[in-house]
Design a protein that fits this description.
about 220 residues
Amino acid sequence: MIHISKMTGKLDGFKAISTNTTTNDYCIKQYEKKDPNNICTFCYSQEMLRTYRKNMANALQRNSDIIASKVLHSDGLPIILDAFFRFNAHGELINEINLINYINIALKNPHCTFSLWSKKYDIISKYFKDHDKPKNLILIYSNPKINHILETVPKYFDKTFNNVQEDLNKDRQNCTGQKCKDCLACYKFDTVNVIVEKVKTYGKKKLNNQLTKGKNENN
């Protein structure tokens, strides 16, 4: 059975289906690069699942195993009672099967709007060049490059999500200091399509200093 998480913090009030970032090859590779200009270096999910939320990892790993191994029958997909729902509050698309199962969950629950963040343009483009996107699925391109706001939304996506240094583009930061349920910019089609949040560095002072140094050198 697919595990549905009840979210807290910024995502308080939301539920999500997530996967395990600590066993996702793409996530591991990006996180371990320790590139201060790549948002994956500051991944909250890796930090949580490796430390104080290790107890979550087993449930998310079961999701990874179930969702990415085969296309599930409709009877095995959950019924969602919420108006808005998140795919991958933790995790990244593992493969095309993972995407297809998310699509089928959206199709089974047409009353709910689903939002999926992804950096995996290869998986998204390969699938949607030959298939229609459900009308209740919002695809958000998660821009990996810090301090580089992506104004043009990639094909097949609906929005871009960007991260900037805390003291940069303050007037553009429309996803900072608020809870998702009070904003819903990522969960409605008729809102902004370029979303900007300040980088959360999770105590990584050395990397944060490198990021700041690079910003100053470019000015």
